[in-house]
Design brief:
The protein has about 290 residues and is of the alpha/beta class. The chain has twelve helices and nine strands. The protein has a seven-stranded mixed β-sheet. β5, α6 and β6 form a beta-alpha-beta unit. The radius of gyration is 22 Å and the shape is elongated. Bound molecules: S-adenosylmethionine.
Length: about 290
C-alpha cells in the first residue's frame, strides 16, 4: 500500500484538486484533512479490523476513506457533492470493498445501507471528518435511529466536542451533552488546529469518540418524554428549572410543580444545567406519575 496514505498531505491534496479542477464549497463544510498524524489518531481511535465495517460521512477526496479501507473489512462512504464522486472512484479504485454512495446522509436510508453493505460485519463504526454545518443532526440521527454501531469517531468543532463531553454544572452542559451521554460514553481524543485542513476553518476542531452504551445509564419509561423534559429545562438557560418547566406543565400547575420538584430532591430554583442524567430521569418519571405531563 505504499503511497496509499499520502492523500493527506498538502502537496497530494492540491495535486488531486488541481487535476480535477475542484473548488471548495464552504456551504458544504468542505475542509479537507492534510495532516497524516491526525488521520492516524482518528483511525487508532476507531480500532477497526477486517471483521468490522466503517461508515464514513463526507469522504471528500478520500484521504480518510483510504485509511479506513486499509483497516476495515467493508467501508461505505456517503458524499453529497457529485463533483467528488469521480475523484473518489479514481482514488479508491484499488479497494473493491469500499462503496461510495452519492447522497445527503440525512436523507439516506441508513438501516437499508447497513443491511446492504455491512451484513457480513461483526460491528460497524462511524468514522468521519464531519461537515460542521450539520454535525448535530448527523450525530443525533445516528444515535436516535438506534443503528447497530459500536462507536462514532468524528472530527467536529472543538466547542461542539466540549458540549458533547460536558458534565453538569458548566456552561457547555446542555441538551446535546445529555442526548449524547444517554446513548454513549464520550471522550475527546485530540484537539486539532485549523492548519490541519485545506482550506483552514476559522475554528479549532477536535476528534471525539462516542462509545455506544449497551443500555442507557438511567431508567426511563418513555424516551420521548424524557427528552421533552430535558429540552424544556434548557429553553431559557438563565431561568430556573421551575420557571422553564412551568411552560411545559402549564402555569396553573406551577404550585404543584414546585412541590413535586422538592419531593424529588431537586430545588426548584436550580437551573437545568446543574441536573445530572439521573435527576432528569427521576424528574420525568415523577412528572408523568403525577399527571403533570403525558
Ligand atoms: N473526509 C474528508 C477529509 O477529511 O478530508 C472531507 C471532510 S469535509 C470536512 C466534509 C465532507 O462532507 C465534504 O466532502 C462535503 O462535501 C461532505 N458533506 C457535506 N454535507 C454532507 C451531507 N449532508 N451528506 C454527506 N456528505 C456531506
Amino acid at each position: 500500500m505504499a503511497g496509499a496514505m499520502d492523500i493527506a498531505t498538502p502537496t497530494r491534496t492540491k495535486d488531486i484538486i488541481r487535476k480535477h479542477g475542484f473548488t471548495f464549497k464552504k456551504s458544504l463544510g468542505q475542509n479537507f484533512l492534510i495532516d497524516k498524524n491526525i488521520l492516524d489518531k482518528i483511525v487508532d481511535a476507531a480500532a477497526l479490523n477486517k471483521d468490522k465495517g466503517a461508515l464514513e460521512i463526507g469522504p471528500g477526496i478520500g484521504a480518510l476513506t483510504e485509511r479506513l479501507a486499509q483497516e476495515a473489512g467493508k467501508v461505505a462512504a456517503v458524499e453529497i457533492d457529485n463533483r467528488l464522486i469521480p475523484i473518489l472512484e479514481e482514488v479508491l479504485s484499488p479497494y473493491p470493498h469500499v462503496s461510495v454512495v452519492h447522497g445527503d446522509v440525512l436523507k439516506t436510508d441508513l438501516a437499508k445501507l447497513w443491511a446492504e453493505r455491512f451484513a457480513s460485519c461483526s460491528q460497524v463504526s462511524v468514522v468521519a471528518n464531519l461537515p460542521y454545518y450539520v454535525t448535530t443532526p448527523i450525530v443525533m440521527t445516528l444515535l436516535e435511529q438506534k443503528l447497530p454501531l459500536d462507536r462514532i469517531v468524528v472530527m467536529v468543532q472543538k466547542e461542539v466536542a466540549e458540549r458533547m463531553a460536558a458534565k453538569p454544572g458548566g456552561k457547555d452542559y446542555g441538551t446535546l451533552s445529555i442526548a449524547v451521554q444517554y446513548y454513549c460514553v464520550p471522550d475527546i481524543v485530540c484537539v486539532v488546529p485549523s492548519g490541519a485542513f485545506i482550506p483552514a476553518p476559522n475554528v479549532d476542531s477536535a476528534v471525539i469518540r462516542l462509545t455506544k452504551r449497551e443500555a442507557p445509564p438511567v431508567d426511563v419509561s418513555d424516551e420521548t418524554r424524557f427528552f421533552r423534559v430535558v429540552h424544556a429545562a434548557f429553553t431559557q438557560r438563565r431561568k430556573t428549572l421551575h420557571n422553564n418547566l412551568a411552560a411545559l406543565v402549564g402555569k396553573d400547575r406551577k404550585g404543584e410543580l414546585a412541590g413535586l420538584l422538592e419531593a424529588s430532591g431537586i430545588k426548584p430554583e436550580r437551573r437545568g444545567e446543574t441536573l445530572s442524567l439521573q435527576e432528569f430521569a427521576t424528574l420525568s418519571e415523577a412528572l408523568a406519575s403525577a399527571g403533570l405531563i403525558e
